[in-house]
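WP5 quarterly update. Target: Ribosomal RNA small subunit methyltransferase D. Source organism: Candidatus Nanosyncoccus alces. Length: 174 aa.
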Amino acid sequence: MSNIKITSGKFRGRTIESPDSKATHPMGAREKLALFNMIADYLPGANVLDAYAGSGALGIEALSRGASYAMFVEKNSRAAAVIRKNLTNLELLKSAGVSEGDVKNFLAPNSFDIIIADPPYDDFEVRSTELLVKFLKKGGILVLSHPTETPEINGLTLQKTRTYAAAHISVYIK
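Structure tokens (predicted):
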């Protein structure tokens, strides 16, 4: 296991575990900081979906910065167990849920203000992410980390894209 540091908010400076696995890839600190600077105004009180959650670092960062609830979707059972452990250690179980399974099969119990999608770059397909759009509230935002040129996503309008080395972060609004 390796550790990831929470960069801001209530849990700033605390560390969470990240599974050492080829099935997950933690977002770099610079990219994570940029992502949260791009969506800072949307976070207070938001319901957040962390798709392709890995360690849960992005959803936990959102909770640390004022989101009221985060749902984590992760298909790797080992990674999902790490997310549960991280939520337990930070006493966030009442503010979060974990759905173990593929994003393609996810059924949300409610809709979300923010969806953060950081899919594996070696298996990137925009169609899987498009399936999440139905869970986004009108006026909500989707943040997508992607390895290629900015994709069009049906039902959403691109607001901005930033590039950091091999990572591109795009923000869309519904």
